[in-house]
Amino acid sequence: MPPLARWLARRLALTLFVLWGTATLAFAGMRLVPGDPAHVIAGGVQANATPEVLETIRAQYGLHDPLPVQYAIFIGRLVRADLGESYQLNQPVSTVVLEQLGATVSLAAGAAVLGFTLALVLALLTAGRPRAGALTRALEFCAISTPNFWIGILLLGAFSFSLNWFPVLGEDGPRALVLPWITLALPIAGVLAQITREGLERALGQPFTLTARSRGATENRIRLRHALRHAALPVLTLSGWALGELLAGVVVVETVFARQGLGQVVVSAVNGRDFPVVTGVVVLAALTFSVINTGLDLLYRVVDPRVRQAAL
Amino acid sequence: MTLSDDSATRTTERPVRKRGGLRSRRPVVLIAGLAAAAVVGAVIVTVATRGGDRPATQAAANAAGAPVTGGTLTYAVAGTQVSLDPAVAATAVTGLIDRNIFDSLVAQTGPDSFGPWLAKEWKVSDDGKVYTFTLREGVTFHDGTPLTAQAVKASLDHVVDPATKSAYAASLIAPYKEARAVSDLVVEVTLSRPFTPFLQALSVPYLGIQSPAALAKPVAEYRPVGTGPFSYVSWEKDKRVTLKRNPGYAATPAGASHQGAAYLDGLVFEFVSEDATRYGALTSGQVQAIAGVPPVNADKLKALSGFTLDTQETPGLNYNLYLNQTRGPLRDVRVRRALSASVNVEELIRSIYFGHYKAARNPLSATTAAYDVGAESELASYNPTEAARLLDEAGWKEKDKDGYRVKDGKRLTLVWPFWAEGNKDQRDVLAEGIQAQAKLVGIQIDRPTVDTGAFVSKHLIGGGYDLIDVSFARPTPDVLRFAFASGNTYAKAGGNVALVDSPEIDKWVEEAAETSDPETARRDYAAVQKEVLKQAYVLPLYTPVQLVGLSGKVRGVTFDAQTYPVFHGAWLGA
């Protein structure tokens, strides 16, 4: 077995373990929350469900079974990639998730691209320039410390409600995505720009930069070809964090901009204790994290030859 | 080769290779650019915060003009829903949307009067248990199925079927026993006991009549199919519901301002939970109407030209604070009345809602039938000296170092669980005001934050609370039975959260629900209102108001007895 395949096999096993762990934690978490799930399934606090209705629900969802039995059934289904059926929506969880996945992915992916681009451009332009660096750093700190929610409201007020450039309601095209993208991208760009700039500055101070200069390399070449590669490692590491930040931000942004998507699904599922949907989304998020982290580890090997040499 | 010389010179001088664009010759330019970005940011903040103040350019054409057919009206609403089946859902949004898709058997035309709708006439048997409805002829559902007695039976059976998992509708017609199709257009409904609120229950959208063909489909393929002025097109979850005109509509309810098909081509409900977003969407013209105008923006909207603000007081139970009379210090009526007298409701409501909500002095809203204006004389209204006197009398004489009253070494503490997910209309702020005022007379109010599960099981069912706040809109005085009859505790699917257990009140509300004599009912309901205020089971806070914001272009929107906007006669002007 070639080393790379062995490495990938180990990662796969690890991913499965992570999935099992998150699914179990989600199961335990939803059962530990106090309260009778039947009541919640019946429509929550405002509902006036009769005792017969509650009994029907308990029978239908197997809530009478002892917990270990419920857990075994749950894991058994999960192995067959069956996430079950939503309590509230009477639809398979996979349908619910897939329906909303597109909206969330286009939001998160666009914001990620924008955030990374912004961070890179800012860092490349200001690294090693104290005055410009100080000013951008101040702006970045503003972006980092302003909550998504507030950025969203401000952008909406200015560009949608006052200037009418980007309508948020009644239009689903890319124009409706611009403001949510910016809202999500700004805090990420703020953090990543700082890390990238620091990495670049450290690399620019290294002897190899001097060597490159002495060989007659242009400033562009030094920054893009030599320094950036060195600065890339911490940025890659932080990408995992940025992904988490995006997932959390999506919930807020979808609320403020009245967009549909997984964030809204999760919020209403958690509120309604729609256990199958919550578990489904949690497992999906864990899978996404695992896949992206594996991808990042592969990228390390491309960027940094030393990792390639290290024991597999 | 003079490499060394060369490099030595270079280290002392500034680097000369500056061809690269990234290393700008004039860092000043960069700094200026960044400064400009900062200024732009500041401008955004300014523009955004005054957004909506911008006077609308279109003039409010006051000339009524003739109604115009066509156009789509977009109505932004707060909240979302999990099912469009009115028999299943309890959410207010579902009732609002379904009202346009489904017609009811009867229409509520006043606080206590009903007119024909899908049923052109009806008879009630002498014992009050059998209702015979004669249906209108020639009505068809959106899918072409004709309206028959069988369809009515199918709809009602669907509601009470436990498999439907009805969260609300079934509780409205609890005495329903069976329905029987006497002929094609005559249906006979039998109840297990006389129940006068039955007609009112039938008039709400949650008991709208559905196409039997649509109900026969599996739950996962459910589509709402009714006989209403608009038919269902699509539901994008958490985003919008789209309806289109039903061109063959003829079954207008009694008292409708417009006959025949609706003027609007389409009707779209957008779910926008964020208040600021919804309000901005209206003032910027992205939607034509919004529900739930934030009270803080209401005056501003009224002043804007090109917009109108419509206020509707909701009938039924006001937003009230219920005092659990079975637990702790509140078992003593003197302590309950002292709490009631310690809170200056009037002032709190005025300062929080800017005069848009009215402080209440009765558990019933003034727009409900059988509302008794005289009952408020029994209310222990704001009087801190009286509150202090009552507490002294009840034995809570001493005060501890924090200023709270103590008796036998125990502090006078009341638990009022805060269910954050159910919070709206700044009710949390109002609660803080009540907390602060109760403290002045020495009563401590604890507000533990609880999630839905704990709120239901530990508090509502388990009874682990002293105070609970809730409102319940329904245009019938029968809500008093829902809120105060001993058999209607939350565990039994009722709203008696004060856990009142009074044979007298039970007798009054039961008699009022069964009698066919309106005078007896009125007397009974008045007695209940007086008694619950006298016993201070309830502290009325305010009458919820629907603040609907409309663009000046929207004409002809009316409101039904339930205060739902009716779009049947609505049209879009220039």
UniProtKB/TrEMBL annotation, chain A:
Offer one Pfam family short name for this entry.
Answer: BPD_transp_1_N
The topology of this chain with respect to the membrane is: Multi-pass membrane protein
Q: Which UniProt keywords apply?
A: Cell membrane, Membrane, Transmembrane, Transmembrane helix, Transport
Question: Can you tell me where the transmembrane regions are?
Answer: 107-127, 148-166, 178-196, 231-257, 277-300
Top-level taxon of the source organism: Bacteria
The residue ranges of the ABC transmembrane type-1 domain are 101-300
| GO MF terms held by the record | dipeptide transmembrane transporter activity
Q: Which family does it belong to?
A: Belongs to the binding-protein-dependent transport system permease family.
Name of the protein in question: Peptide/nickel transport system permease protein
Under SUPFAM superfamilies, the record lists:
MetI-like
| Listed InterPro entries | BPD_transp_1_N, MetI-like, MetI-like_sf
Subcellular locations according to the entry: Cell membrane
Q: Record's Gene Ontology CC terms? A: plasma membrane
Automatic annotation (TrEMBL), chain B:
| Region Disordered: start-end pairs | 1-20
Domain (Solute-binding protein family) ranges: 115-480
The record lists the membrane-crossing segments as: 27-48
Whether Transport counts among this entry's keywords is yes
**Gene3D superfamilies in alphabetical order:** Dipeptide-binding Protein, Domain 3 (3.10.105.10), Periplasmic binding protein-like II (3.40.190.10)
UniProt-recorded Gene Ontology molecular function terms: peptide transmembrane transporter activity
The GO cellular component terms are:
ATP-binding cassette (ABC) transporter complex; periplasmic space
UniProt keyword annotation of Signal present: yes
Pfam families membership: SBP_bac_5 (PF00496)
The record's similarity note reads: Belongs to the bacterial solute-binding protein 5 family.
* The protein's name in its UniProt record: Peptide/nickel transport system substrate-binding protein
- Origin species, per record, is Streptosporangium saharense
